[in-house]
Fold:
Amino acid sequence: MPQVFPRSANQVVRVSFVLVAVGAAAAGAALWVIDRSPFHTRQGLFVEQSVPFSHDHHTDGLGIDCRYCHTSVETTSFAGIPPTATCMNCHKQIWANTEMLRPVRESWATREPLRWNRVHDLPDFVYFNHSIHVYKGIGCQTCHGAVDAMPLVYQHASLQMRWCLDCHRNPENYVRPREEVFNMDWSPASVGTTQRELGPSLVAEYAIESLDNCSVCHR
Amino acid sequence: MNGNGGSLDPGERATMDQPSIEGEILSDRPRATEDRGHQRPAPRTTLRVVGEERVAAGAPVVWRSLDELADTPGFRERVVREFPRWAPAEWSPPESNPAESNPAESNNDAPDDAGRRDFLKLAGASISLAGLAACTRQPTELIVPYVEQPPELVPGKPLYYATAMTIGGYATGLLAESHMGRPTKLTGNPRHPASLGGTSALHQAATLGLYDPDRSSSISRRGRILPWEAFVAEMAPVLQAFEALGGDGLRILSGTVASPSFEAMMAEVRQRFPRAVWVQYEPINEDVPRRAARRAGLGDASVRYDLARAQVVVALESDFLASGPGHLRYARDFSRRKRVRDASVEPTRFYAFECAPSPTGTLADHRAPVSPSELEVVAQALLDGLGGGAPRQDLPDWLGAMVSTVVDDLRAQAGQAVVIAGDQAPEEVHVLALRLNQALGAIGSTVLVGRPQIAAPAGQEAAFAELVREMAAGQVDALFVLGANPVYEAPGDLDFAGALAKVDLSVHLGLYLDETGDLCDWHLPQAHFLESWGDARSFDGTLTVIQPLILPLYQGKTDLQLLSALAGRERSDHEIVRAVWERGMLQGVNGDSESAWRRVLHDGFWSPPDASSSLYDGGAVAEPAPPAIELLATPPAPGDAAPAAAGAGAGAGAGASELELALRPDPSLYDGRFANNAWLQELPKPITKLTWDQAALVSPRTAERLGVNNTQVVRLSVGRRSLEAPVWINPGQADGVIVLPLGYGRGRAGKVGNGIGSNALALRSSGDGWNLRAKVAVTSRTYPLSSTQQHFDIEIQAEQAAARHLVQHGTWERFRTEPDFAKRHAEHVPVAPLIPDWPYEGYAWGLSIDLSVCTGCNACIVSCQAENNIPVVGKEQVGRGREMHWLRIDRYYEGELDRPSIHHQPVMCQHCELAPCEVVCPVGATVHGDEGLNEMVYNRCVGTRYCSNNCPYKVRRFNFLRFNDARTPVLEMLRNPDVTVRSRGVMEKCTYCVQRINWARIEAKRENRRIRDGEVKTACQEACPTEAIVFGDVNDPQSEVTRWKALPLDYVLLPEVATKPRTTYLAKVTHPHPSLALAGPAGHGSAGSAHEAQIGQVETR
Structure:
């Protein structure tokens, strides 16, 4: 009976072993990369909004404090998105007729709320509380990046759990004085010190606990 | 009868080991029809006899089901395997579903097996698809801010408002939690004098009622949807015509009303239509106690009790701790005197005479199952005894002994004693109870007689019958039904539906397009109480405000609005209530009435500035006790026939097929109005643990006499009306009585409640009372029932059972000499765990449950369900043991079959410090927190169920299917946003309400302090009417939970597995009367002494 497979077929088998191994590794690597890529995390991607609100202009340019709009950031879990009324406080008078602000005026006139696309979206099984982070001296800029320099807001950090834990396990690397939390320009260097010197003393002073029990965020 | 067990000869004893016994009279398994021809002849080889055998033989006498008592193979199977072998049955057609049959049987049933190949196919498909399903990105979410944000509303922070719910007209003060305008959770209002913060399961389930997708959502005329304006426009000429007639032929029918605003609106309506008639009717009404009060010479009076002063309580067919208008306050007062903290304060002694075990009766130190007719004899005997008469001879020995003991005790504690007759007790018993209280000098101290709180306290049923008669005679031209459902609720002798057809114009205002709405010309959706302004009095007269939490979801109208439209000047419900209060209650307050009104809204009730702080002063006139009660008078004529029947009930038994029939409100569905509430339908009933169904409850002995088995259908006939119901054998029930719950047989309740059971109200005639006589015919059919009584059963090795049982209890006498009796069972615990001790330095959360005051009322279960987004699973899945309740209440019987003691034990995750579940999870989805919480991480869980297998307490629940309804939009509003909604394939369990702990921790940290004791209350703790649960930091020496755990009564479950649970229990302390406690091993309520004997045996070994 003649051989079904020629001798060279052995080579094909050997190569296919290698290819399977390489393929599996490549697939693993691809998953690893995709998991960390902005495609998955949306890190660094601008999000279009119906009103092209510029934090750059309002914060850096006009010097409005974060808390003028994000009113509940110190008191509860959600920082708060301003109601149309907050926009209209100023825009009744200034830029009252621009095309760009038409949706805001329409919302005010029709009492239909504005709709914003969410930029920082944690999974539904994660419970984050702004107020305690602010109280313990974590600056806005630490997580949200240089929002004051963003014409349109994008997600600065990956918001993955490893990123959360990085700070929860080593808060001394990120904590800043409470009074500087809303200061977008603050850095240890700006007050002539280093995070390495300042961090541990603030952690002690603010009694930061480095909570990393699962139920702190998942429940 | 007590001697039976001991007198069996050894030959009969041998039969108890035969596995075939389980097919006999009492097991779960339906008897095969062909067996009927050649039933085993010897009636003594029944489970009852077996049970008595075991009691006599010193076997463990604590049991949860009849199968356990007889130790059937089916029971063994359930104990060894957490889930009986039913998993493959899911894929087989429903008709061959063996969920209700015996698990041992299902092993043989070939059709259940989907086959190895099918299994492999599905497994392969699910593995490959699981990878694909993971490749999703989160969809972009929108943030929709306000246009103008209300100043008090902070997104992320719930707001709490005081409001109230009425049941039977009476208000219960509640606090509603509102997340961004959505009410999600109700808790009791701790300041409200009528409840002091307690709630019942019915209150806890009200949020689901609000978001019920089956609620009626549009105004319709004979099925055609129309706007409110069309209704008003059509009514205008009609009402003008009635005005010209002075309201002749106009009738208004409502439920029981105790609302000043409703009464005020009704007064306006009557001003316009002087001859219009307002009828109040609810099936569960107060006609019987009211008639009794009049007969006793009290006139139009209502009776309340001050249990804070009662040292001896005697309940006559009364479930005063778990149902009725005042039960929440009674539960608080009673439990505070019943619980045991130290040996210096003697707890209340409580005697219960009732036909079937009620939650209240299970707390009794002596509980006597007596039929309603026998109860009249007992009450008369008590009265005779107090008057110095000779003890009656016609009572059985045990009952006679108990009656004379009660008499002695009452006499000894006169002034601190109270006799409570339940709303469903016969009228004669109410009269006798009033005479007893008069004889005890209780009136004015423990018994308070006052003006009734409801608007028209005169006989509701007579008025309703008159209305139906007029309707049938064509004398009613227009009928407005406000929030009632008379087509379903009418007594069986009144053909309301037929009479309704003769009414020219009928208008129905109701939450649902129900049986009545269906037959009326107009149907208007009613606003739920969480959508309404209103007010109502509580049972003690406290004026309580109903405040809306949300705008009506479906443009519902309140009864006040409809009445204002009838009165000719349509107003909003807020306007009406505000105006009524302005004219009434707020008249003459110091300062401006607006701030007084604000105060009322804040507190939820009206506390007049000049009122004393006394409990019963809020609006009611506590009249001095009228002296008119004639002591020791012979019972008037109407009840004369009863004692004869009673003798029969107590002794040899009535005619072969005629039994007493006791109709009782269902503990979950009440009178049927909650039939479409799935939380309540799935709630295991406090005693039988049945879910989703109605059953005719009979005692073991009666079942034996009738030759019926569990799930066998019987036909009950009263006169010419009859219905069918499956039988459920209820140990501890009086012989010769069938107890049938109301609330079933709804035809138009909604998707959840339709077509379950039969309407027991149809057996009644108007004026009948609640205790009838019925002919019983046994059919050969069976109907599957889902009871959870054997689910999550925990095996205790037989020889240790008595000493190490999960329920520990003892008597007050024993507590005084040996306070740590419950700890004894932990003596031989291995002390070298594999995992080293972890120092808990910060908070260490712990929970303690006082078994002395747990009535098993289920409020905690529903509260947990509402707080933690726990789904319902449906009857069929319950039958498979897949109910999701994180908290279950295990009910144990102890002692002999006919008169067992009953204990309740709430069991949830014990939060073991050395948790067996944690070490077996392959993906780290259940881990230990450094505050001692056993944490469950849903997003890590892959559903291996190893943790559940390894849990000795069987408290983990697995989402076998996608039980949470994610498709119905309105149900999204119900969810607690602070708790993850779990999907299929995820394990879950009690978290100690970790969301509340986290909230409190953040609040405390922002204020630079520790969490205060009592700041974190778990949902179960908050709901408990008897304050049986306390939660807190066990590292804090001052905390309440630490104090509880330091009591000698504290013990842990299964100490031999050395898990170091954070949940511990306070042993139940009963307070039997010394003379009855010594009455012998089978003496009812003498469980403590029997139990002591058991422990003694173990120790001498």
Notes: The two ends of chain B are 31 Å apart (CA to CA). Chain B touches chain A at residues 137-138, 140-149, 154-157, 842, 927, 929-931, 933, 935, 937-939, 978-981, 991, 994-995, 998, 1002, 1005-1006 (CB under 8 Å).
